[in-house]
Write a structure and sequence with these properties.
Number of helices: 6
Shape: globular
Order of helices and strands: EEEEEEHEHEHEEHEHHEE
CATH class of the largest domain: Alpha Beta
Number of domains: 2
Structural class: alpha/beta
Largest sheet: 7 strands, mixed
Radius of gyration: 17 Å
Strand content: 25-35%
Helix content: 10-25%
CATH architecture of the largest domain: 3-Layer(aba) Sandwich
Strand order of the largest sheet: 9-8-7-10-11-13-12
Length: 231
């Protein structure tokens, strides 16, 4: 499943180790593999000048979709992440590629998904898998320090409240919260515009909303809210 590519097809992004592929499709994103020779599941590997790059599917990763929609943040290779809703660890592994000298504290509530997440972390020293419920952040408070970025992608109902609880404990004063709001996980029949608005209102007064945007055409009924604490 390996394929050789030429450097001329790489287009840099604002994210460390992340590139677009030109000459194919604007929806093609890749990240430089932090651990050469190690795949996550059965992913396709691209090789250029003895370097490995991993295909990053925006239809299966909200963060990849965000980057392809020209989302930009000052995430560096030294950044620290608290990732809520780590699932099987695919997107976590790409964050690991980005913050190669930083850390990713990956919280997941499902024991089944945690097995896959642990497999990802075995070869990635900058990923700390934690089995826990994001609704109860005090339960993992002794394992997570203050972080530069809080990234939340969960299917629980009280998404804004959960983000607030975790930001209060872990997000630095200068840190950034990236909240993915899933309308149908909160209200399966309500107007999504109202659902989004109600969740954003819960953040107001506590956070400064920097930007918000939908994830069409990659993900339906999702928006991203980027916010910072009021100092």
């Amino acid at each position: 499943m390996d394929e050789k590519i030429n450097r001329s097809v790489l287009i840099g992004t604002d994210f460390n180790n992340v590139y677009r592929l030109s000459g194919s499709t604007s929806r093609q994103l890749i990240s430089k593999n932090l651990i050469p020779g190690i795949r996550v599941k059965d992913e396709k590997i691209l090789i250029m000048s003895d370097q490995e790059f991993r295909i990053w599917d925006p239809f299966h990763s909200k963060l990849a979709a965000m980057i392809l929609k020209d989302f930009s943040l000052p995430i560096t290779k030294d950044s620290t992440f608290l990732y809520l809703g780590a699932a099987n660890g695919t997107t976590v592994s790409h964050v690991s590629d980005i913050v190669e000298k930083g850390m990713v504290y990956a919280i997941e509530i499902s024991p089944r998904a945690m097995k896959d997440l642990i497999k990802v972390s075995i070869h990635r020293n900058n990923v700390i898998p934690i089995l826990g419920d994001a609704m109860h952040p005090a339960s993992y408070q002794n394992m997570v320090p203050e972080v530069d970025f809080l990234y939340q992608d969960i299917a629980q109902k009280e998404q804004a409240r959960i983000a607030i609880l975790n930001a209060e404990l872990f997000l630095k004063k200068t840190g950034v919260m990236i909240l993915i709001i899933k309308a149908r996980s909160i209200d399966s029949i309500g107007r999504k515009k109202d659902v989004f608005g109600n969740e954003i209102k819960k953040l107001e007064g506590l956070f400064k909303i920097k930007q918000s945007f939908d994830l069409e055409p990659f993900h339906k009924d999702h928006i991203v809210v980027v916010a910072q604490k009021f100092h």
